[in-house]
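Please decode residue identities from the backbone states below.
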């Protein structure tokens, strides 16, 4: 696959503004001419290797910030939005989308907001939603979608909260007994902890200062819920300040995000950044070993691996996803070039869907996306028993993966032929360009179709090359 040129004009402008430098001063420090810098900032020229090196040496920039980030996510999200049939006659080429994401990210986000509003309006009309008759039925993202996008565009890494959690769990760099640290923090505030046979996973009564956890849940879940309550009670000022900066549109979105940030603190305290990253490297990212070392679940470990994006100390760029039995994505994050569909399910050719067929086993897959990028994908089912007879059991499948160039650092790559066959997978049928896929549900938006009533192959139509 040819090397892709690096266009990062918006990021260069952002760095210069952050440093309060004029274009001339910035150009001097980078060792380039003023016209050359101007062309790079406007994406008329790619960022050269010499400039990347100067950014790292002169300003201590983590150069990975220039490659994977908001631009890739915006391109993926715009392609999915443009797969809507309403754009069938006006679909811009991929190169134009990349230019828009790089040169005008604010405009790209405004387009996505507009499409989301259109989609919601269309769905309400289709279902005769009673909201059409309400005065407050404004066309805005749901609180859940707004919070999802907040974490999505933050790389699922919140630096201040992550560092606070690490300081709590590993003061001075030494890992503490996390359960003892949490109970001590609660005791200092006069809060008592009890375990009962309740069906609720966690319940806190502010009046009596009593926290009860269900003894029906697994130990990692109990530890996580204990730390979540610690976050709500001891990190409130930090969480509220983070919410102020996010500027959510509704109180409901802010409330959901507050729980999300408390969850983030809990996961980061259970698996503190530097200690967890060191253990991940030592075990070659063995999820079961890491779960044992940190008293966590396999899902918690997999999710945490995808958040190791601290500037200057980034881990392997992973994607992480969780799907339910209907194939709907319930959690998603990607620090890789692979971005997931915002609506609906994932590609049916992906091994995460087969995990339900082999409970308790890890499935490995070497996969290639239509853009030619190759990945090592890992999938496993996750069951969460209710803790009692006839109690509902939650069943999910999780997927974790990275680009194949990092595969040697994963124990799961052992025994695989990394130069052999890679299975073709996609993102969403409407934006997948593969002409012959036996699992295709709808035609690709950007291709012409040929329908021959006298022939039937894999599909009832042919896709023009």
């Amino acid at each position: 696959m040819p090397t892709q040129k690096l266009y990062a004009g918006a990021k260069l402008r952002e760095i210069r503004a952050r440093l309060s430098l004029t274009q001339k001063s910035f150009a001097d420090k980078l060792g380039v001419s003023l016209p050359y810098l101007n062309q790079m900032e406007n994406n008329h020229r790619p960022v050269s290797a010499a400039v990347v090196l100067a950014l790292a040496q002169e300003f201590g920039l983590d150069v990975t910030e220039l490659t994977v980030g908001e631009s890739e996510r915006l391109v993926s999200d715009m392609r999915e939005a443009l797969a809507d049939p309403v754009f069938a006659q006006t679909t811009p080429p991929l190169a134009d989308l990349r230019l828009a994401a790089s040169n005008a990210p604010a405009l790209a986000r405004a387009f996505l907001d507009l499409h989301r509003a259109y989609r919601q309006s269309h769905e309400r009309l289709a279902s005769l939603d009673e909201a059409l008759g309400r005065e407050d039925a404004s066309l805005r993202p749901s609180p859940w979608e707004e919070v999802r996008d907040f974490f999505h565009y933050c790389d699922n890494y919140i630096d201040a909260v992550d560092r606070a959690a690490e300081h709590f769990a590993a003061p001075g760099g030494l890992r503490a007994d996390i359960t003892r640290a949490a109970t001590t923090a609660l005791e200092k505030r006069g809060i008592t902890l009890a375990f009962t046979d309740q069906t609720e996973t966690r319940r806190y009564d502010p009046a009596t200062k009593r926290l009860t956890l269900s003894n029906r849940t697994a130990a990692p879940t109990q530890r996580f819920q204990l730390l979540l309550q610690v976050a709500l009670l001891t990190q409130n000022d930090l969480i509220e300040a983070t919410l102020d900066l996010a500027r959510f549109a509704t109180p409901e979105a802010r409330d959901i995000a507050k729980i999300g940030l408390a969850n983030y603190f809990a996961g980061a305290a259970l698996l503190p950044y530097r200690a967890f990253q060191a253990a991940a490297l030592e075990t070659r990212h063995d999820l079961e070993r890491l779960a044992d070392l940190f008293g966590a679940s396999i899902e918690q470990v997999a999710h945490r691996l995808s958040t190791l994006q601290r500037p200057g100390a980034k881990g392997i760029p992973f994607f992480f996803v969780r799907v339910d039995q209907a194939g709907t994505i319930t959690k998603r994050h990607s620090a890789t070039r692979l971005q997931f569909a915002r609506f609906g399910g994932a590609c049916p050719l992906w091994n995460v869907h087969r995990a339900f067929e082999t409970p308790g086993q890890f499935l490995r897959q070497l996969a290639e996306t239509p853009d030619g990028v190759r990945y090592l994908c890992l999938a496993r089912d996750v069951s969460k028993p209710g803790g009692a007879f006839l109690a509902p059991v939650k069943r999910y499948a999780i997927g974790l993966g990275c680009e194949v160039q990092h595969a040697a650092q994963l124990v799961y790559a052992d025994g695989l032929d990394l130069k052999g066959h890679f299975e073709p997978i996609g993102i969403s049928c409407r934006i997948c360009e593969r002409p012959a896929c036996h699992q295709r549900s709808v035609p690709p938006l950007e291709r012409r179709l040929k329908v021959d009533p006298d022939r039937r192959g894999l599909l009832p139509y042919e896709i023009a090359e």
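Observation: The radius of gyration is 24 Å.
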